[in-house]
Amino acid sequence: AKVRWPADGHLTFAIVTHTAGNGFFDPVYVGAKVAGNMIGANILLLGSESPTDDPAREIEILNQIVQDPTVDGIIMTTPQVGAYNDIVKAAEGKGIPVVTTNSFDGTLLNRSRISHTGQDASAAAIAGEALVKCLADKGIEKGTIVLPSSTAMGNVEVNNRVTAAFNAIVKGLNDAGKLANFKVDAGPENTGIDTNPNDPVNGIVTLFESRGDVVGAFAGNNVFTPALAKAVAQTGKTGKICAYGFDLGPAQQDALKSGDLTGALGQQPFLQGFWPVMQLYLQIDRGIAAANLDTRAQLVTQEDVEKVGKRFEN
Fold first, then answer.
1. What are the chain's domains?
2. What global pTM score does this model have?
3. Residue 4's pLDDT is what?
4. Residue percentage of the chain with pLDDT more than 70
5. Which end of the chain is more exposed for a tag (fewer CB within 10 A), N or C?
6. Do residues 193 and 185 make contact, with C-beta atoms less than 8 angstroms apart?
7. Burial degree of 7 (CB within 10 A; 0-12, 13-18, 19+)
8. Which residues of the chain have pLDDT under 70?
9. What number of helices (H) and strands (E) belong to the chain?
10. Beta bridge partners of 214
11. How many Cα neighbours within 13 Å face the side chain of 108?
């Protein structure tokens, strides 16, 4: 079926995410609305109500949206590799263009024809490099660096971030000739030390206490980063260790201000809502082929956190 403008002259796009319940996707939704306002499109903001990753619920919503005759385009996150091909097939059968955002599934049906907006997980190396510099700045010469995560969640994107941060930490310490003095632990496969996502604060506190000499930590998503900050505060390590995480939700911004978190990587989520809307519009209006956007990462610290929050207000 051919993609075309709706009879009433107004496009309706649905953006569906895998976790609308924890604040991370708020700037994504804001970006989508801002783009929608620019082109006069109606944007449906949808997603799993859960505060943790919930691809099953997301797929349920997508299956309903594909059947909605008023929807002219679909934007979806794809955290669970291989789970979205039926959606793509159904949408294309109805002439509804699909684009993906945030999490990337390289195996997606017709991947080369489907635009993706998001961050390459390798950007997590920026946090790994910053952590090594932080240790040097604090004069810390030895100890353990932990990278807690939930490998059971099966989020390939998060696993890859942890691996990229781990590799950057190891490389940085090795280049400085200090690797032998540190134990860098990201679990058996370097995708994270498995930690309970339903009680991450206690999981990280227990990890700190069992290791005894933790001087650095990295968390790879919006579940474990606020938990890392709370664990740092609870164990009296604020300002004493180098604690880095991911995403710039309200909890992360507060933790950066208080010093419980040394730095956090923003994946420019505003762009992850803004560009997919524009991409769908250009595909429908001008026949532009799928273009990808790498939103990279922005390292935010106590010094510049004030500026960042302003962008996400609408």
1. 12-119+268-296 (3.40.50.2300), 121-266 (3.40.50.2300)
2. 0.74
3. 66
4. 96
5. N
6. yes
7. exposed
8. 1-4, 153, 309-314
9. 10, 14
10. 144
11. 23
